[in-house]
Amino acid sequence: MAKVHITNVVVLDNTSSFFNPFRFELTFDAQELQEDLEWKVIYVGSAESEEHDQVLDTIYVGPVLEGRHMFVFQADPPDVSKIPEQDAVGVTIVLLTCSYRGQEFVRVGFYVNNDYEEQEMRENPPPKPLFDKLVRNILASNPRVTRFQINWDDSHTNGNGVPENNGHSDEIMIDGPSTLQQQDSMQDTLPIDYGIIALNENSK
């Protein structure tokens, strides 16, 4: 049984300039843990390959006592030199992950749209992306949450110290069935296959 449950994620300062920091307000319920939680913000730089993913920041939260916790996670924008030019403008994904003892147990993914603020530049984009002219909009109302079973402090393990049901994941939506229906519809129209794969257990 999971000892940490994310109850809410609020995207702050949305919509924003491309070079502004990412800011998320996270709320989670937890049982008392022996070690800290490791949180990461990951920017998916390209739909074609994981090699363009960037870990924007990593923080450790602890000690974790039983009860409800809330904090703001701020991360710097991605390094534009690591983003392929053809993937700079358009739809991508930002991920929030949390791990315990080196084991990722939850992942929250948001679609992100980067586009020019000026209508003329949207209709006639420059040959090379102008990142200082881009505006970032996170689809905050449709997060996809994937949970993975891990070995907590008192979990039953097999002979190798791995949870008996290791590898199983449950994919949920924070906002309930109506949001899930909207998300499924969006997946049919967004041209980003890797981003969708990154939000399920096959990305492990």
UniProtKB/TrEMBL annotation:
Q: What Gene3D superfamilies does UniProt report for this protein, alphabetically?
A: Histone chaperone ASF1-like
An example of a Gene Ontology cellular component annotation for this protein is: chromatin
GO biological process: one example: DNA replication-dependent chromatin assembly
Q: Name one Pfam family in it.
A: ASF1_hist_chap
Record's keyword terms, sorted:
Chaperone, Nucleus, Transcription, Transcription regulation
Q: What GO MF terms are annotated? A: histone binding
**InterPro entries for the chain:** ASF1-like, ASF1-like_sf
Q: Please state where this protein is localized.
A: Nucleus
Family, per entry: Belongs to the ASF1 family.
Recorded protein name is GL13653
The organism encoding this protein is Drosophila persimilis
Q: Which gene encodes it?
A: Dper\GL13653
